[in-house]
Structure formats: C-alpha cells, structure tokens
Design brief:
3-stranded antiparallel β-sheet, single chain
Length: 118
C-alpha cells in the first residue's frame, strides 16, 4: 500500500511548512491516473498523524479528472480509463491536460501555536 509512504511524505512537508502552527486542513489534488485509493489514503493519513504535531488535521482530497485535448480536432475528452483517445474523432494524437497531479494544494493553519495534541 503506497498510500502510507505518500502520507508520510505529505506529513513531513506539511509539518515543515506549518512552522510550529497548528494545522487544521491539508488539501491535496490527486489526478485520476495516480492510482491512489482515496479511502486508503484517508485511513493512512489518520494513522500517520495520530499523536504527532499534525494530530487532528483533516485531509481533504480534491479529485482531478483525467482530460485530454485532441491535436486533430481540438476536442476535449474526460477519461475514465487510461485509453488516450479523443472521444470526438478517435484520434490518439492527444495531449493530457489533467489527471496526473499529486500535490498539496493548500494548508489551513490556526494562529495559535501547535500544542502537539488535538
């Protein structure tokens, strides 16, 4: 389950950038093709931050659809499967414009310092 190692990396990055402030919410953008299971990521997040400086911080996952734009007809197609084809003209000459993201979008912190517990 790679979600656990992802949560460890997210927590380390968030903790560093929070600079001692209490973190309330971490927003994460996850592309459709990143092969991340949201429920598993949430479970791992809760266990990763429990008892530490991020204990109680909520992880909000923003799902980003996989979208390609066709170089032939200019059409835009949202994909459910990794079949990189235009829905309009069936061309495989497409550019992926979203769906591969995995990034921390924002961190909501409180003005009060972190006490180490929720």
């Amino acid at each position: 389950m790679h979600e656990l190692s992802l949560c460890n990396a997210i927590a380390a990055t968030v903790d560093e950038h929070a600079a001692g402030k209490r973190v309330d919410v971490v927003r994460l953008r996850v592309g459709h093709f990143r092969q991340v299971v949201p429920d598993t990521l949430q479970f791992c997040w809760t266990n990763t931050v429990a008892g530490g400086p991020l204990d109680g911080a909520r992880l909000d996952i923003v799902a980003v659809p996989a979208v390609v734009v066709c170089r032939v007809c200019g059409g835009s197609t949202e994909l459910d499967e990794p079949m990189l084809r235009c829905a309009g003209c069936a061309s495989s000459e497409v550019d992926m414009v979203s769906g591969e993201e995995f990034m921390i979008e924002s961190i909501d912190v409180s003005d009060r310092p972190d006490t180490g517990a929720a």
